[in-house]
Amino acid sequence: MFNNNYLSESEVEDQEILQNDNIELDSNVVNENVYYNNKDESKVKEHLVEMGFECLVPLFINEYIDLEVFYNLNASLIQSILKNFPVGFTYKFEKAYTHWRSNNDDLIAMSSVISSNENVDISLKFMKGCILNILNSDEESKRFLEALDVSNPFTKNERKELMKHIIAYFYRKKITLRKDQIKKLADCIEKDFPHEKSSSYFNPDTGNGKLYHKFHNELKSMKREKLMPSSSLKRKRIEEKEVANSNLFSESELKSDKFVQQSAANLDFVLLKQHWIISSKVRNYHFRNEKNKASLFDNYKTLLRPDGHILISLDFGVLYPDHLDFINEWKLNFIKFEKILRRDGKDDISYDKFSQNQRVAFLMYALHCYLYSPGMKFVNGSRIRPTRQDTFEFFLLLCTTENAMEEEHQIWLNKIKSRNLTQQAIIIGYGTSFENIQDKFCVCIENTKYIFNSLILAIECLLKVYYVFDIEFPIINSQCYIFLSKKFLGLKSNMKTVKGSKVNELLNAFQ
After folding, report:
1. Would you give the distance in Å from CA 133 to the centre of its chain?
2. How far apart are CA 322 and CA 269, in angstroms?
3. How far is CA 106 from CA 199, 213, 353, 509, in A?
4. What DSSP letter does each residue of 282-302 carry, written as one string?
5. Which residues lie across from 292 on neighbouring strands?
6. pLDDT tens-digit series, residues 24-44
């Protein structure tokens, strides 16, 4: 794919090493965009040559990097594109790109505003002629420009109308301007209309002005009317794109259990983990606005999603037990956590005589004790004063026998209901204490139950249930859930840790 004539001797060496290791560039790193503009190739090449990276021209063309994508490269996208280049080369390009971008801010900003369907020079910057081009972009603005008396200073109403047309242009493009860009627009007004002063539109001393205030006041109004994208709408569009790109298999393939088993068997641990994280975002998009969570819990096992049954199995730990790397990673984290608790003098119990599940149960209880807070927040007007045992039971509820599980679970549900608390999902174990706990655990979500013989896998399932179904953690022990989600699954929580909390201390201790 690459012409080594573009590379230095050291870079050629690195490329040969990569080729000898049979590492190939993924041609799907950046999906082909239906709006890809072939005319942009020369501009992209020109920019790469300007940066001193002409060797990347064939790669960027093969990956369909048009101007819009090129102007919005970030570190993660750069790394994914250049993943088979040496780390030093990638870092060098990132640094050069950042420097180039800072020197071409006007060019990038203006080119993102101008549609490729318009007969406007895409290289136009915020300079003389800019406002005239904006006013010539639609019929109403043209009529306003023709009726405008440019030989005299504008009246108050004319200035107001001018700002209205300028702002409407950027709204049509769904572009939000920064303060420095609005200042440059004000300077352009002075250049295009000599009798006007930029200070009438933007005050450099205060950093605002009529154009600035009008733009952002109108922006708020447009967002309220859903005519401009808010950050949540932008996130929704990204998620919709992820959903569209996630339909990898046909419906008939998804219904085949044999297909599911073969697909899972072909995934190594790293790919399996990445596969689940990506797919969970897709389902989270489906579930976010679903109010009837109970029906989701009951029907989830039979619902088809992008990638189908394989992702459902991944979510609930059915396939993970076959991957020893996954279990070993959890065990290493638990061992490290044991050492941290013992070092801090928070746990004096010897684990040597206990089974793996018993050790994990002890450790989870120690975690809840470590993060225990006797004074909780107000919930529905009443202050909660839970015991350590109460907080732990929101995570793992021990029932005496399997036959008595339903009855004891209902008693516990009535207990938390009387405290105005809610509980969406929980692990149920069997035994009178940690010393005689059985190797059978049940993750309960409403009327749906998932059975595991490993407490580690039950915990993993519990955390994924909260994440995939977008459920808030129980307030009574939310910090424990947050710590486990962040450390053991690398998930971002919709709840924040308390500033200076023990959760942050533990997370730092794991670094």
Report:
1. 38
2. 10
3. 20, 21, 68, 45
4. HHHHHHTT---HHHHHHHGGG
5. none
6. 333 333 333 334 456 567 788
At 336, phi and psi to the nearest 5? -65, -40
β-bridge pairing 396-399 and 425-430:
parallel
* 153-200 per-position pLDDT tens digit: 888 888 888 888 887 787 776 666 667 777 778 888 888 888 888 887
Tens digits of residue pLDDT in 430-444? 887 777 788 788 887
Segment among 165-169, 337-341, 364-368, 481-485 with least mean pLDDT: 337-341
The residues near 483 (Cβ < 8 Å, ≥ 6 apart) are: 367, 371, 497, 503, 506, 507
Rg over alpha carbons for the chain, rounded to the nearest Å, is: 30
> Which sequence spans correspond to the domains of the chain?
4-103, 110-228, 246-315, 325-509
Total-model pTM: 0.41
Distance (Å, whole) CA 319 – CA 433? 29
Write down the number of H helices and E strands in the chain. Answer: 25, 6
Helices (H), 6-121: 9-20, 40-51, 57-62, 67-71, 75-81, 87-103, 105-113
